[in-house]
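User: Predict the structure for this protein chain, please.
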Amino acid sequence: MEHKGTVMIETDRLLLRRFEEADIEAAFRNWTSDEKVTKFLRWPTHKSVKTSEEILKGWICYCIGSKWWHQGIVSEAFTGIIPFLFNDIKVNRIESQHDPNNPNSGKVMLKCGLTYEGTLRQADFSNQGIVDASIYSLLSHEYIPTSHT
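Assistant: Here is the predicted structure, written as C-alpha cells:
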C-alpha cells in the first residue's frame, strides 16, 4: 500500500474531504444528534454540540443524516472512494460490515460492488446491544471501474 494521506475526492454531487472545525455544528444538527442515525452505531446520540466537537476532532465518520437517506449519496461517496483506494493506495481488499437489522447499509455495499461473504453471529455491538455482523468485501482483481450511480 502507498499511504497518500487525506485527499479530496469529487463525485457528481459531492466533495469528500477531511472534517474541519467549521463542520461541527452542521454535523451535530444533521446527524450526530439524530437517534435514527445512531441506532445502529457504537456511540450514543450526541446531546450537545460540545460532544460532537470532541468526537469529530478524533475520528473519521461513515454516517449521514437520516433526511439524506435513500438518495444515493452514500453509494456515490463510497463509489468515489473505491478507485482511490485501489488505484492510488494500492490496497488489495476493501471490507465493510453492518448490522443485519440495518439492511440498507448492506444494499450500499452491494451497489458499490462488494460481495457478501457471510454473517458473523454476535460479533459486534451497537446501541442495540450485541449484534450480528454481515461482512462484505471487494478484492483488487475484482474491481471494475464504473460510472457514479
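The chain has a mean pLDDT of 90.
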